[in-house]
Amino acid sequence: MNEGEHTLAVFIDFENIALGVKGRKEKRFDIQKVLERLVEKGKIIVKKAYADWADYSEYKKPLHEAAIELIEIPKRSMSGKNSADIRLCVDSLDLCYSKEHIDTFVIVSGDSDFSPLVSKLKENGKRVIGLGMKDSSSHLLIDNCDEFIYYEDLERAIGTPPKIEQDLPETKKEAFQLLVDSVVALVRENKEVLWSSMVKETMKRKKPSFNESYYGYRTFSDLLEDAESKGLIHLRTDSRSGTYVIVGFGKDKKKEEKDDLKEKKERIELKERKTQKSRWRPRTRKPRAKSPVAQAGTEPVTVSETPSSEPIPPEPSTRVSIESEPNSKEK
User: Fold this and answer.
1) How far is CA 147 from the centre of its chain?
2) Which CATH homologous superfamily contains domain 158-277?
3) What is the pLDDT of residues 302-316, one digit of tens each?
4) Which of 68, 104, 186, 321 can pair with 127 through a Cys bridge, CB separation 3.0 to 4.6 Å?
């Protein structure tokens, strides 16, 4: 058994479930939906169902196919009112004390009479999960369990997993569907990092006969790579271990790529706008024309070289005063 994997024991009060199903549109209880959800919680070791099976003979075949042990309870007139409940409590407590490796108990019922049993199991360090109909489940039992699953919620899918292409071969479609269902199951269980080994274990719990070589893949990594190429999942390689980690579905990857392209386009447009503005801001013509004028007071030669049409007024006056002095002396 792998570290962190839970072991489950499932006890079904079938009479209570059958009464709850009668009030629904679908008047048939599907045990496969229940087991598919519980397999996501861990490895199921014990499966028992209690009822007077003479009244529920149509359920015998699907329950036998699911490898559930059917505990026969005689009619109420012969054995009493709560004989099925008592037998279920005795078997679960016996298993709690004798099998220490079982850490999770699942009570498939909505009867409030099982609330003391739930409390006793929790006292012994066991995790208790309840499952029942929404309309016929007692709030006392719901609040006492560590987790309670409504049967109606088993049909509701979380998120929008990608659709598998119909052009693929049947074997590949079966493998990809099992892969997508396992990823959805791990996301439902709030797993933060979806390691490839964790996904493969979930696929084997859902379908014990799963083997990637049957579907034409040499290794499980080849299956993941092919699923990524088909746009079903998004993979990332862990830097330490070098194994694959499933980050999300393929549709999420396409959305991220579109968002990245939009951001890049916006950045490029902003850069182009900035460069266009910087070309027209500086105008150096005027300051270049003023610079030789500032040097004219020290070097008069530069004044004559300037092509300006208007002469500077102070310089011609100084030249006239210098030339007038020798003329006065000669007279």
Assistant:
1) 21
2) LOTUS domain-like (3.30.420.610)
3) 444 445 455 555 555
4) 104
